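Can you please make up a whole protein chain along with its backbone structure tokens because I've never seen that pairing?
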Amino acid sequence: MISLTYSMSRFCILLILVSVIFDSTFSITFYLPVNLRKCLREEIHKDVLVTGEYEVSDQPNAKTNLKITDSSGHTLYSKEDASKGKFAFTTEDYDMFEVCFESKSPLGTGRVPDQLVNLDMKHGVEAKNYEEIAKVEKLKPLEVELRRLEDLSESIVNDFAYMKKREEEMRDTNESTNTRVLYFSIFSMCCLIGLATWQVFYLRRFFKAKKLIE
């Protein structure tokens, strides 16, 4: 029984460590100058829940707009005069997402102090509210932890499946490139051999015409 408990503890610790690697929290604080735009980018897998919370320091003479888009330009979240709030969306495909803060002021640059922006983003298992899930489904604490470990295990499996797929795509690309290089090398050698043969016959005819050789 003690051995089983120890094994379960090691397993839980391993999952927690892996969760830190695969589902880390993205948190950043930076200063946003007036009439400038700053964007942050992050790659996120398919069918992943993304949540975020932001807060922009108050500045009466400036307003800040927030916009989140994917690589195709589709708007996932947009907020004008954003000061404090939350957002959430679920990714439809593996993509690069861009979070942009833009400060605007009619007073111009240099007359308005920079605004302080705090951004906290979570995705995957870290983004799910298991306390709310426990209330809705009436789960016990152990069941909640098992649900979290199940979601974490599924996330890890999906990540490894994606990495395997990428490895297969890269291997196929590498093999295809090697094949093309081989065919191009053979074609180049044939062209060089043909050109050398033509030069030999051409020079032979030239020297015969000049009666330098018989």
User: Anything to note?
Assistant: The radius of gyration is 31 Å. The chain has two domains: 24-127, 141-214. The longest strand covers residues 95-104. The longest helix spans residues 141-209.
